[in-house]
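Dear colleagues,

For the upcoming journal club I promised to circulate an example of a predicted protein-ligand complex. I picked one with tryptophan because it came up in last month's discussion. The inputs are reproduced below in full, followed by the predicted structure.
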Amino acid sequence: MARENWTSSIGFILASAGSAIGLGNIWKFPYVAGENGGGTFVLMYVLCVLLIGLPVMCSEMLIGRQMRRNVINAMGKMEQVGEHAWVRYVLCGLMVGLAAAFASMHAWGLVLAALLGVWWFAKKGFSALGWICTAVALAILSYYAVVGGWIVQYIWLSATNSLSAGVSETATAMEVSKAAGTLFGDYISDPWRVLVGFLIFMGLTAAVIFGGIRDGIERISKILMPALFVLLLVVIVRSLTLPGAWEGVVFLLKPTAEALKPQVILMALGQCFFSLSLGMAITVTYGSYLPKKQNILKAAGWVAVLDTFAALLAGLAIFPAVFAVGLDPTGGPGLIFGALPATFNAMWGGPIWATCFFAMLLIAAVTSSASLLECGATVFIERFRKGHQRCSRKQAVLIGFIGCTVMGLLSVFSTADWSHLEPLHKGCTWVMGKLAMGSWFDLLDNFASNWCLPFTALATALLVGWAWDPRKAAPGLLAEDDAGRFPTWILTAWAFFIRWLAPIGIVLVFLNLAGFIKL
Ligand code: TRP
């Protein structure tokens, strides 16, 4: 069976941007920036995107396009072609280091897992990495869909004009935001209501994937992107004109030296991978559908620019309101749900704008979650067979769907607190030691985006930069008929970034975080 291809380069860029732009930009970026010192974080974030995210994204697209297989086979094959078998032992060494780092955090379960990883990498090499990516992608989906469910609920709340229910007509923005905060708190602590949104969101995600890549993702992305950007601009204008809004802009854009801590750099790095959908082989999957006549550098550049732009716009839409209504910028995952209602309430036709905004956000989130499920589904389709019969697309989606839904239930029932799940809590504390902070939801988010994604991105950099020769690989970044028309220094720069800068940068951040070195 021939694999499907993207119909046009704009289609590929939009679909990749559709995967990249999602809750990571609009929900996560503002609150993580708020918790990590605003402008300083934003500066670090942009640097991470340029120096590490972009080269890694090119590499992932390249792996996909050269190998035209699912992640696991693609990574394994690439290692074989490269003939530098020693690189997998570097990966084993890194795993030993990681095990030591986990031991220093009393995360005994993770130490065990890392040691098993050493053995697995030694035996199977980079195809093991493909499995890890698939597992982490599905784990991310399991809590991503919970936040997606919140958005579903907020569409309902704004459409029925109950976002600011119980607040008087003359209430100040501050009172509205306070009421919105209470509303959000009540909502997430009622697991049954969260469950409804979560299931709707998972259902939507599976439905998109059933449609196949062309029909499902490509068509929807073409309409959605421009609309979301326009709506963000509208919200920005209103939120900037709230009294006291300027302070928020300064907070978001002005770096300060005091705020620069190693933790901030790690968070920026994790957020960069999360937001660009990297480290999870999604871009490998998408790249495997990319025809040879397209230029990867250009496509990756566009995706990174659009994604960063969306995150910055979201920051500009949220922070002026946060400061205008006196919210705490370090307030965590509920930040946008406290700030946005105040802005919408101050707008003429507020509930209508709010409904449109959350609806767009839902579509953006679904295109992202679909990419997470797609990655698992491709693996299942190409790896699971009975005799000669492959697993069908339907079965593959169903396996991913059921797995994520079951795991997602843990997040649903623990977002507020998990005192009622005591044995589970104890187990997690044993497995994750000091990393087991907050609820299951927080812990999964923290572990997946700040540990797993940088690690898998590091491994991808090693694969392309060392196991495979980037000097040989680089021309593959160009379009078939581009040779000679593209400045070669860009290729040399990419080879340097992926060979040296990305791996060293990520390792330094890890070492620092584990307390082995002090930067
Ligand atoms: N990038 C998406 C967002 O910003 C989320 C996402 C989709 C993702 N695919 C991913 C994150 C793969 C990590 C890995 O919302």
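Two points we might discuss: The pocket of tryptophan is lined by residues 19-20, 22-25, 137, 140, 274-275, 277, 280, 282, 368, 371-372 (CB under 6 Å). The domain at 9-325+333-513 is CATH 1.20.1740 (Amino acid/polyamine transporter I).

See you all on Thursday,
B. R.
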